[in-house]
């Protein structure tokens, strides 16, 4: 396979994952704004931070308003991580790697982009927002389903999965990075309703409310939430799950290529970081722990690009 | 152009249906306009989703456009096709012999059949190819011959595309779309298949590899996703099951052209390039080019890779050389040309220029190296102002132009809002050449001028396409 193709596949699926994650973050923000009485637009700051687009937002806007924040994340062409920009980048990469994709995957991706381009060409009215965001998630599921159902499990598949899970791990880690303080056992706020709402936010933003309840019932503690998002082996957006998947796909590449470049050491390090229990993580500092993971995820991505000759 | 003399391929001048169209007529009679309209829209959606678009140069916003597709097939009878394909084969053989001769002994010039300045001063002539024999002796691996029809048995070659003919993906997708939408049509009519083209292309290219050991590695070279024909490049690579590469994926490694894969550099045997000669190799041609591979020409000259089509084939589809094609065919095949040329005035010749300047309003004037319908004048439909402006361009660089009479192109019905209506068409059959073998896909790409009365079929100028049927005997 061409190095360029591996690059295109990796980024195509990162962008697809990003579009979906951003849509989910907007949904969460919207939900909180609607359920919280008297709260201003403050929640949108942390939503922007989680999406990693807070400072770029400030560069182009005087103040923070809900409408502008949503527009920035949903459809701004100036924001390379907006839902629309991400879907456009995913489709552009798909065009580049057209020969590596099945017709089903290409058509699902192209159709998603055409749908988003038409729907997001104008500002989305607040009453239409839920439908639009739901559509983004549905479309992302369509591409994922076509991928799962029609793509051969070869090196092509390995690279697209690496893109998916690196982006997903990064997203979950950023949610924890921005919201870690809510999960800390601070004396004043424990058990207050504000915390409950904040915990909800975290679970909502990774579509994990149902899964969490199934595992832990309704008596949740912040510790349980952290455990679920970081260390759970079955939760498809937890850090351990994502990193485990990347381990698998890098392993398959070793088998098909017969060589083991440095990115494999990086993924081993990452996995080793997670061989701890949640108490240890809290004792040594949740924030520091997440920061360390985010850095290592970044390093891993760069190493994969080098090892598999993504560019010259 | 006399309106009364237009040849319609479906209906005779007496209003009688031509027999090859009986199946199409029955089908049209059994459908309602509403259903056909719905099907027409369905076809468009299908094309959009598949991404069969092309980019129009010089229009920033309209980045990707769809080539309109008309659902009424164009039909060619087995007898007509047999005649046509014999003529095409003869012409393609002559073109390859001509190219070999021109880059070697130049017998045709010695024999006085073509003036030496037609070659020596021609920008399409590539001095780097002198004395080079491509692997297998094949110059034009893929050829598209543009034909127009003016009467029952009258076909003319409008132009030979010997560099990088495009449009074959439309031929294939048009058939695919018709098969999906109107399967019953193909159950009732015996139409020769075109879907084997990609497999034939791969086989034909592989047969031209420099060495005959093992399975040759074939790749398609594209200028990239912003090229107007990118869809076709990706489509062909996909259908052939080969890699689609860009210049920056390639480099010369150990005397071979190799592509950068996830496991390192891997050599290529046959490169089907969709990049023009000038951009192929910054070391040997345009040094500014980022689309090519530095040093590929040196590998090529040393016999290390097959480039399809060979560099320098443009000399054979140059429009000034075109006017010599009857002589060229006769010179190399010893036969009379089976396909007619369109009469052509070479404006380089002062007498011809004088005639052309006097008759601009009746002629079509084309740039010698132009393509895609850009930079041409269609006298009968041009305004006085356009003609006056063109006259100046022509006088400034007469050698850059040729002129032809406006031919009365045949018509085939298209489906319009008001029902069936005749529109002018041309035909581009696709020809594959490998050592000792010439293969012509039955049919080709029919381009149709969608505007009433218009003679311009180019997609860049608002033309559309049709599925083209060659019936079984």
UniProtKB/TrEMBL annotation, chain A:
Pfam families in UniProt: Alpha-E
InterPro entries given in the database record: ATP-dep_Glu-Cys_Ligase-2, DUF403
Domain DUF403: residue ranges: 1-308
The name this protein goes by in its record: Alpha-E domain-containing protein
Organism: Albidovulum sediminis
Lineage start: Bacteria, Pseudomonadati, Pseudomonadota, Alphaproteobacteria, Rhodobacterales
From TrEMBL, chain B:
Pfam families: CP_ATPgrasp_2
Top-rank taxon: Bacteria
Transmembrane spans: none
Signal peptide positions (record): none
Domain Circularly permuted ATP-grasp type: 73-449
InterPro entries: ATP-dep_Glu-Cys_Ligase-2, CP_ATPgrasp_2, UCP005522
PANTHER family per UniProt: BLR5612 PROTEIN, SLL1039 PROTEIN
Identification of the protein by name: Circularly permuted type 2 ATP-grasp protein
């Amino acid at each position: 396979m061409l190095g360029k193709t591996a690059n295109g596949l990796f980024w195509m699926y990162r962008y697809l994952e990003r579009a979906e994650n951003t849509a989910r973050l907007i949904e969460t923000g919207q939900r909180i704004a609607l359920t919280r009485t008297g709260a201003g637009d403050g929640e949108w700051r942390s939503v922007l931070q989680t999406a990693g687009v807070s400072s770029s937002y400030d560069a182009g806007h005087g103040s923070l308003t809900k409408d502008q924040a949503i527009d920035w994340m949903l459809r701004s062409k100036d924001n390379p991580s907006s839902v629309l920009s991400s879907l456009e980048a995913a489709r552009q990469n798909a065009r580049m790697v057209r020969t590596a994709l099945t017709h089903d995957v290409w058509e699902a991706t192209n159709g998603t982009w055409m749908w988003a381009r038409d729907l997001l060409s104008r500002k989305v009215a607040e009453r239409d927002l839920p439908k639009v965001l739901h559509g983004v998630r549905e479309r992302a599921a369509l591409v994922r389903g076509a991928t799962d159902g029609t793509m051969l499990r070869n090196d092509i598949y390995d690279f697209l999965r690496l893109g998916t899970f690196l982006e997903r791990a990064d997203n979950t880690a950023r949610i924890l990075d921005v919201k870690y303080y809510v999960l800390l056992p601070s004396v004043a706020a424990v058990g207050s309703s504000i915390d409950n709402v904040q915990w909800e936010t975290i679970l909502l933003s990774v579509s994990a409310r149902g899964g969490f309840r199934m595992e832990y019932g309704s008596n949740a503690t912040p510790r349980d939430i952290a455990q679920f998002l970081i260390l759970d082996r079955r939760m498809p957006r937890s850090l351990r799950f994502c990193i485990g998947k990347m381990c698998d796909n890098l392993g398959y590449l070793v088998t098909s290529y017969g060589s083991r470049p440095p990115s494999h050491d990086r993924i081993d390090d990452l996995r080793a970081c997670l061989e701890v229990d949640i108490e240890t993580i809290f004792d040594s500092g949740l924030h520091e722990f997440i920061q360390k993971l985010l850095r290592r995820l970044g390093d891993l991505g760069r190493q994969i690009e080098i090892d598999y000759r993504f560019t010259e | 152009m006399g309106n009364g003399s237009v040849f319609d391929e479906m209906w005779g001048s007496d209003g009688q249906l031509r027999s090859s169209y009986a199946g199409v007529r029955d089908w049209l009679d059994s459908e309602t306009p509403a259903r056909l309209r719905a099907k027409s829209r369905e076809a468009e959606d299908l094309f959009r989703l598949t991404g069969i678009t092309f980019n129009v140069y010089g229009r920033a916003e309209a980045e990707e456009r769809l080539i309109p597709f008309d659902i009424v097939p164009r039909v060619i009878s087995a007898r007509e096709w047999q005649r046509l394909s014999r003529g095409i084969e003869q012409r393609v053989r002559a073109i390859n012999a001509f190219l070999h001769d021109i880059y070697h002994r130049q017998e045709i010039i010695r024999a006085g059949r073509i003036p030496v300045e037609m070659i020596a001063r021609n920008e399409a002539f590539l001095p780097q190819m002198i004395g080079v024999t491509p692997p297998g002796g094949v110059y034009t691996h893929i050829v598209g011959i543009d034909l127009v029809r003016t009467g029952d048995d009258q076909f003319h070659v409008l132009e030979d595309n010997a560099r990088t003919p495009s449009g074959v993906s439309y031929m294939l997708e048009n058939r695919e779309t018709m098969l999906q939408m109107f399967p019953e049509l193909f159950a009732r009519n015996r139409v020769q298949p075109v879907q084997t083209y990609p497999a034939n292309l791969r086989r034909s290219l592989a047969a031209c590899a420099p060495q005959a050991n093992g399975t040759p590695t074939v790749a398609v070279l594209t200028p990239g996703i912003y090229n107007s024909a990118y869809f076709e490049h990706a489509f062909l690579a996909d259908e052939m099951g080969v890699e689609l590469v860009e210049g920056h994926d390639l480099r010369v490694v150990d005397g071979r052209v190799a592509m950068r894969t996830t496991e390192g550099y891997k050599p290529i045997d046959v490169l089907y390039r969709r990049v023009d000669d000038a951009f192929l190799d910054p070391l040997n041609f345009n040094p500014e080019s980022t689309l090519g591979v530095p040093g590929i020409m040196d590998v090529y000259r040393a016999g290390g890779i097959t480039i399809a089509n060979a560099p320098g084939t443009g000399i054979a589809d140059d429009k000034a050389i075109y006017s010599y094609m009857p002589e060229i065919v006769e010179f190399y095949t010893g036969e009379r040309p089976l396909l007619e040329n369109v009469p052509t005035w070479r404006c380089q010749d002062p007498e011809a220029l004088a005639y052309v300047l006097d008759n601009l309003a009746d002629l079509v004037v084309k740039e010698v190296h132009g393509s895609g319908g850009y930079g041409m004048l269609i006298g009968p439909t041009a305004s006085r102002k356009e003609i006056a402006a063109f006259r100046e361009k022509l006088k400034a660089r007469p050698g850059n132009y040729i002129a032809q009479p406006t031919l009365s192109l045949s018509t085939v019905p298209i489906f319009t809002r008001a029902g069936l209506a005749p529109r002018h068409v041309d035909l581009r059959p696709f020809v594959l050449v490998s050592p000792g073998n010439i293969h012509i896909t039955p049919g080709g790409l029919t381009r149709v001028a969608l505007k009433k009365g218009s003679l311009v079929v180019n997609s860049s100028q608002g033309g559309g396409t049709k599925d083209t049927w060659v019936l079984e005997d």
